[in-house]
Amino acid sequence: MLDKQTLFAASLFPYLGFLWFLTRSGQFPRLAVIGFYVLLLFVLVTIPAGIYAERVYGESLANVDWLHGSAESFLTLSNILVALGFLLAIRRQETASSEQEK
């Protein structure tokens, strides 16, 4: 039977594939692409933070507020970058469309 750590590790490979195709396509807003990479950074920060929480505090990461909040800030930053990247792309497209109509 697969445990949660094995599933977590296995899920990284499809995400890395997603990032590879996303980067190669050139079809996504650059800021959004950066946001998707920051999500990977969030994962990479969360793993050692969870290990630290277990070893030092004897608790899961979710129970060590300062450490959990610090790790989650990368997720927040990722979400902001992705949303802002697509918002700016939509606005650029709208501006280009309105200029073509003139």
TrEMBL record:
It comes from the Bacteria. The chain crosses the membrane at residues 6-22, 34-53, 73-90. InterPro entries: DUF3593. Signal peptide: none annotated. It holds the Pfam family DUF3593. Keywords: Membrane, Transmembrane, Transmembrane helix. PANTHER family: 1-ACYL-SN-GLYCEROL-3-PHOSPHATE ACYLTRANSFERASE. This is DUF3593 domain-containing protein.
